[in-house]
Design goal:
The structure holds two protein chains of two kinds. By secondary structure, chain A is of the alpha+beta class. In chain A, strand 4 and strand 5 form a beta hairpin. Helix content of chain A is about 35%, strand content about 15%. The relative contact order of chain A is 0.13. In chain A, strands 3-4-5-6 form a four-stranded antiparallel beta sheet. Chain B is α+β, with helices and mostly antiparallel strands. Chain B has one domain. A three-stranded antiparallel beta sheet of chain B has the order 1-2-3. In chain B, a hairpin with a 6-residue loop joins strand 1 and strand 2. Classes of the chains: A alpha+beta, B alpha+beta. At the A-B interface, strand 1, strand 2, strand 3, helix 7 and strand 4 of A face strand 1, strand 2, strand 3 and helix 2 of B. Strand 2 of chain A pairs parallel with strand 1 of chain B.
Chain lengths: ~350, ~120
């Protein structure tokens, strides 16, 4: 039951004023600019864009500043802002095969065409705190080499030439959109991929990790991981043809998974797929593992009852904006609900013959 | 734009408007289309006094850029096309290419050159 009450306005106004002051922190320290967040906390910005489901670096950086660095709160701000904007249409599906790769590695083939390109990765750092960063200073320019103009074919296409991996036919069916229609089950792969790409990184990581530890194993290899920029094209109605209107940075991961084959089908590898806004490698790998785990039914595998095989469980709990909204609402006033519970417990205790100590004292 | 020519007279058909487009991807890169998430876009349409209609769609929340893009689109349909191309589009394309080349060169420097170690069996 909901009952309107008044009386908190002054307290709320003052709480907001104090929040603003705390957000700013010690005024002897220079204020953080939005551009500084965008440039120097780029991976936070990427996460907010992915989970806020809106690609706009400046907006994500501003949201991080406003939320004092709380990335879920920042993604919440992005989602709320998004609802105020008209949607002009859909892009053509981006072609990640033409990605200008900053990074492109494969765990399955050492000598793949186009090579193993490490890019700006943490992978080979020693995870020792670098106290030199505490002292502000310039960094030397990164080394350069002559770019390799050769295209970087997909690892799956290399395997596919021998028919060793499941077919992945192009399908231009208009995909379902969970921002326009409520999530319904069963959810097809397109809908699952949409939900996964915007789901919480920690949740997706935990789900993916659970499959590695035995709760619905899929035996994944990272066939290919690539990070870079792809052009975004769109059919513009006023023009009647497609134009390139921008570019987005994406992380793509395709896993190559074991598959036993059956009486009717020869043994073949299968695929899991992750595609995420920004440089978001942990999330993209996690997404590909969870995507693969959720494909058990279409691949004729057993449901072993693993959480990561349960589409409804995964998709319904991965959205951190929904989750935090419902979770945190329980801290808001529930005075009337609780009053009714109190009455009920008192009644049950009376019926059980418990003497109310307060009444006994009177 | 200012360097190219004074802004010609035009009539606004659609004032610069901020919105989004849904960016699509494909499952496993080449399969079924799915919705990846939105990106911000600003669009604008206008008509020059000489009649050409121009449309601008630019990424981000950039009203001035969308208007300039629409203006350039309109001017590219008129007699000044070659001059506008040289003064506006070519330099922008060169800048974009330089940005791409810089990143590609840095990426190339992080390419692994494997050397196989000879096993000491002989």
């Amino acid at each position: 039951m909901y009952v309107a009450t008044k009386g908190g306005e002054r307290a709320i106004d003052n709480a907001h004023a104090w929040l603003a002051e705390e957000r700013r922190g010690d005024t002897d320290i220079p204020e953080l600019g939005v551009a500084q967040i965008r440039e120097q906390l780029a991976l936070s910005v990427n996460r907010v864009m992915a989970e806020g489901s809106l690609y706009d670096r400046d907006l994500a950086a501003l949201a991080i500043k406003q939320s004092r660095g709380d990335l879920i709160e920042a993604a919440f701000l992005i989602r709320a802002y998004r609802t105020t904007l008209p949607r002009f249409g859909s892009s053509l599906p981006v072609d990640t095969g033409t990605m200008a790769c900053d990074r492109r590695i494969s765990a399955t083939f050492k000598d793949l065409p186009g090579g193993q390109v490490l890019g700006p990765t943490f992978d080979y750092t020693h995870r020792l705190i670098d106290f030199a960063l505490a002292a502000e200073g310039g960094v030397p320019d990164a080394p350069v080499a002559a770019p390799d103009p050769a295209p970087k074919p997909r690892v799956a296409d290399v395997i596919g030439r021998e028919g060793m991996i499941e077919d992945n036919p192009r399908d231009d069916t208009t995909p379902p959109d969970l921002t326009r229609a409520p999530l319904e089950f069963p959810a097809n792969r397109a809908l699952r991929l949409q939900a996964l790409t915007r789901s919480d990184e920690g949740f997706t990581l935990g789900m993916a990790y659970s499959t590695q530890r035995g709760y619905g194993r899929t035996h994944p290899f990272v066939g290919e991981l690539r990070i870079g920029r792809v052009a975004v094209g769109m059919e513009v109605p006023e023009l009647g043809f497609a134009i390139e209107i921008g570019e987005v940075e994406l992380t793509e991961c395709e896993t190559v998974n074991q598959f036993k084959g059956s009486k009717t089908e020869p043994a073949q590898f299968t695929r899991g797929y992750g595609l995420v806004f920004g440089q978001s490698e942990r999330k993209a790998i996690s997404m590909s593992l969870v995507d693969r785990a959720l494909r058990w039914a279409e691949l004729g595998e057993d449901n072993v009852g693993a959480p990561a095989q349960d589409t409804e469980f995964v998709l319904s709990h991965g959205d951190n904006i929904q989750a935090t909204g419902f979770l945190e609402h329980i801290k808001l006033p529930h005075y009337v609900d609780f009053q009714s519970e109190l009455e009920l417990v008192r009644k049950l205790r009376r019926e059980a013959g418990v003497v109310d100590t307060r009444e006994a004292a009177e | 734009m200012d360097a190219a020519a004074p802004t010609p007279a035009f009539e606004m058909l659609r004032t610069p408007e901020i919105g989004t487009i849904m960016v699509q991807g494909r499952a496993s890169g080449t399969g079924a289309a799915f919705n990846l998430g939105e990106m911000t876009v600003t669009r604008c349409s206008l008509r020059l006094a000489s009649g050409e209609v121009g449309h601008g769609y630019v990424q981000g929340r950039r009203k001035t850029c969308a208007q300039v893009a629409a203006l350039v689109d309109a001017l590219m349909q008129g007699p000044d096309a070659a001059r506008i191309d040289a003064a506006v589009i070519a330099p922008l394309a060169a800048e974009a290419e330089a940005r791409r080349d810089t990143r590609a060169a840095k990426a190339a420097a992080t390419r692994v050159e494997f050397t196989t170690l000879v096993r000491g069996e002989d």
